[in-house]
Specification:
With 202 residues, the chain is α/β, with parallel strands linked by helices. Helix content is 32%, strand content 31%. The chain has a 5-stranded parallel beta sheet with strand order 6-7-8-3-9, with helices on both faces. A 4-stranded antiparallel beta sheet has the order 2-1-4-5, with helices on one face. α3 packs across α4 (109-119) and α4 (109-119) crosses α5 (132-143).
Length: 202
């Protein structure tokens, strides 16, 4: 299945404050688009806009699967998203959290079980008891539900120890065999298959 994300002229203002101005980029199967910039430069805002979670003040976004253009609602359901502020249900276990979101996406429970196994977490551990690194692994599992073709990764290695980062990098490598990714970080990361780099000055 082919997949391509492209965007141009993306601007975003909050009142009189300009966060993004005329940002453009593109990425397709087997490629990474890397976005860097200091805190407050708009990296997270750009990813939220690309995910369809926030409107742009101006600009266009096209995400195509098999040459079919998806609208913003379809785009939200068709991609995977990792973000530092993603919080799940503390009273549910790891697997219960993912099975809940799998149902919302019309996916079988086995998709949640598979995602948990891929990140090496104990399925019956409660989210509220997880360390920051384990919570980041669970964010990766949440993003990988249904094995989406597009991943939007905001500081994807945050809070991970050496083993966790190695796992996340391996998952990214595996994903790029059949998918594409936009990766945002305040520092320039060494990443595989980077097709384009965008630096946001803020």
């Amino acid at each position: 299945m082919s997949a391509r994300l492209s965007f141009s002229g993306i601007s975003r203002r909050f009142g009189r404050k300009r966060v993004l101005e005329q940002v453009a980029g593109a990425v397709e199967i087997g490629q990474v688009l890397a976005v860097s910039g200091a805190n407050g430069s708009g990296k997270s805002t750009l990813l939220r806009i690309l995910a369809g979670l926030m409107p742009a003040s101006s600009g266009t976004i096209e995400y195509r699967l098999e040459d079919r253009l998806l609208d913003s609602g379809e785009r939200r359901r068709a991609l995977g998203y990792v973000a530092p502020d993603l919080a799940l249900y503390e009273s549910l276990t790891v697997v219960e959290n993912l099975r809940f979101f799998a149902r919302l996406r019309g996916l079988p429970a086995s998709a949640a079980d598979d995602a948990v196994a891929r990140v090496g977490l104990a399925p019956e551990a409660f989210y509220g008891t997880l360390s920051s690194g384990q919570r980041q692994r669970l964010r990766w599992a949440w993003a990988l539900l249904g094995r989406p073709r597009l991943l939007l990764l905001d500081e994807p290695f945050q809070n991970l120890d050496a083993a966790g980062e190695a796992l996340a990098r391996r998952l990214l490598d595996e994903h790029l065999e059949n998918g594409c990714a936009v990766v945002a970080s305040p520092i320039t990361l060494e990443l595989p298959k980077v097709h384009e780099r965008i630096h946001l000055a803020g």
